[in-house]
């Protein structure tokens, strides 16, 4: 009995001990090979959790056609089940006008997600979730990163994701030792594939040496090939790591 | 003009209203906080202003909290309700009751960065300028008609803290001025549009 208790304790402390490193990651978004936008994702550590932001703007030729920007943020913490979101918001602007603005509060303990009234969310909605953590569209990749690190032998993962219009369960499968090429350099990554969205699946690649952060995300949606590729990563607290990929 | 100020924290904007009260024709009838330990309550007590602490955690729903809050406000029959760092989302019923006489100050250049952590989000977004907005309160989160904004440049070495400090200076200047427009009868809300001296803002 004491052995089991010790193992449980060690397992929990091992999970809780691993923390995300605050960082700034730059990504390039391409659609069908055409560079469309640049995104900066920044993770901050708070006293009682994390604050994660993503800011994307159209770039290059795309910016000449349409001025489009997305600002999203997620507040989350980590418990013994992994990443648990507290709040998520996203604002999309086209030519400086708000085209989408969602704000949701997330409570995994009470299994509820509720929206705030915004310009494009004129009604308060409440969604019920299942038991367990709830994540959001921004923190989901950190939730996966956390599970890849803390459950090295686990091959399938399931997440409840609240996105402002629903709470849906998404399933992912892990494949180790996958060769990838980013910006002309070869890496061995962990590949994670979303398995329960036929015709709209995501392949994401995570690098162990970069704190399990996603470095490459591929998605085919509506006949288009979307590619998210990391271009720069700065982790100030880990030996001042800064890599330009 | 009689007003009630709602706060949640240190109440530095409340202090700027207290300091300018005579000049801006504001009689603060009461200060109400949803946090018992809010330092702003002490500021009010030092200025001999009645205070109330209504802990939102003691209520099972937003509606119940807002009902008690509304009853407390109404004791003072205010003509203006000022949200000065009140960190609580209000129900539609509450905001509709006080439409046209409730003002909020928000530390961002709305509509950018509604909600929390505005300074860090402005930095993360690579903005070149940041600031503060005063707006009429509607049931949208930080989404009511904007009355006035004050802008500052974001400096290369700014942190969220340094930015917050510099924005706060602007808050302390802007809020009393806008409240003064209201107490003078120059600022009104018509439909979903703010008007100053008859001109749409």
Question: What this model shows, in words?
Answer:
With 245 residues, chain A is mainly beta. Helix content of chain A is 13%, strand content 58%. Chain A contains three helices and 16 strands. Chain A has helices spanning 2-17, 60-65, 140-150, and strands at residues 23-31, 34-46, 49-58, 68-79, 82-94, 97-107, 112-115, 126-128, 134-135, 156-162, 167-182, 185-194, 202-207, 213-221, 224-235, 241-244. Chain A has a 16-stranded mixed beta sheet that branches. Chain B is of the alpha/beta class. In chain B, strands 3-2-1-4-5-6-7 form a seven-stranded mixed beta sheet, with helices on both faces. In chain B, a hairpin with a 2-residue loop joins strand 9 and strand 10 (199-200). In chain B, helix 1 packs parallel to helix 6. The two termini of chain B are 23 Å apart. Chain A binds chain B through residues 40, 42, 44, 51, 53, 55, 71, 73, 75, 87, 89, 91, 98, 101, 103, 116-119, 124, and chain B through 89, 92, 111-117, 120-121, 124-126, 139-141, 143.
Cα radius of gyration of chain A in angstroms: 18 Å
Shape of chain B: globular
In quaternary terms, these chains amount to heterodimer
Proportion in helices of chain B: 25-40%
**Could you tell me the mean pLDDT of chain A?**
84
Number of helices of chain A: 3
* Main beta sheet strand tally, sense and closure of chain B: 7 strands, mixed
Mean pLDDT of chain B: 93
Apparent shape of chain A? globular
Strand content of chain B: 25-35%
Determine the fraction of residues in helical runs of chain A and give it as a percent range. 10-25%
Flag low-confidence runs of chain A.
Answer: 1-16
What class would the helix/strand composition of chain B place it in? alpha/beta
Structural class from helices and strands of chain A?
mainly beta
Instruction: Determine the strand fraction of chain A and express it as a percent band.
Output: over 45%
Question: What's the β-strand tally of chain B?
Answer: 10
- Characterize the main sheet of chain A: 16 strands, mixed
The N- and C-terminal alpha carbons of chain B lie at a distance of 23 Å
């Amino acid at each position: 009995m004491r052995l089991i208790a010790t193992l449980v304790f060690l397992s929990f402390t091992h999970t809780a001990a691993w923390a995300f490193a605050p960082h700034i990651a730059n990504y390039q978004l391409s659609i069908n090979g055409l560079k469309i936008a640049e995104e900066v994702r920044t993770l901050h550590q708070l006293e009682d959790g994390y604050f994660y932001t993503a800011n994307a703007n159209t770039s290059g030729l795309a910016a000449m056609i349409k001025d489009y920007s997305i600002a999203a943020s997620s507040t989350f913490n980590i418990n013994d089940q992994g990443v648990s979101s507290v709040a998520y918001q996203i604002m999309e602007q086209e030519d400086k006008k708000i085209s989408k603005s969602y704000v949701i509060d997330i409570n995994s303990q009470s299994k509820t997600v509720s929206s705030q009234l915004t310009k494009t969310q004129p009604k308060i909605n409440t969604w019920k979730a299942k038991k367990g953590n709830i994540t959001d569209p921004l923190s989901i990749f950190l939730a996966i990163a956390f599970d890849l690190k803390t459950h090295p032998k686990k091959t399938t993962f399931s997440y409840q994701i609240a996105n402002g219009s629903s709470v849906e369960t998404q399933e992912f499968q892990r494949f180790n030792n996958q060769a990838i090429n980013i910006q002309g350099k070869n890496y061995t990554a962990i590949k994670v594939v979303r398995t329960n969205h036929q015709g709209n699946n995501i392949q994401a690649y995570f690098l162990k040496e970069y704190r399990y952060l996603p470095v490459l995300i591929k998605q085919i949606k509506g006949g288009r090939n979307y590619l998210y590729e990391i271009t720069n990563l700065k982790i100030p607290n880990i030996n001042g790591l800064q890599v330009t990929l | 003009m009689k007003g009630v100020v709602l706060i949640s924290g240190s109440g530095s904007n409340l202090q700027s209203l207290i300091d300018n009260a005579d000049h801006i024709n504001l009689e603060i009838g009461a200060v109400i906080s949803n946090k018992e330990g809010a330092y702003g309550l002490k500021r009010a007590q030092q200025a001999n202003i009645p205070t109330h602490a209504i802990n939102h955690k003691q209520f099972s729903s937003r509606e119940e909290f807002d009902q008690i809050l509304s009853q407390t406000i109404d004791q003072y029959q205010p003509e203006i309700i000022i949200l000065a760092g009140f960190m609580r989302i209000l129900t539609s019923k509450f905001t509709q009751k006080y439409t046209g006489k409730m003002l909020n100050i928000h530390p961002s250049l709305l509509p950018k960065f509604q909600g929390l952590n505005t300074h860090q989000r402005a930095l993360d977004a690579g903005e070149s300028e940041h600031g503060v907005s005063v707006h009429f309160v509607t049931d949208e989160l930080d989404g009511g008609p904007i009355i006035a904004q004050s802008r500052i440049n974001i400096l290369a070495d700014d942190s969220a803290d340094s930015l917050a400090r510099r924005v706060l200076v602007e808050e302390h200047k802007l809020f009393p001025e806008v409240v003064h427009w209201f107490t003078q009868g120059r600022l009104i809300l018509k439909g979903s549009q703010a008007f100053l001296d008859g001109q749409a803002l």
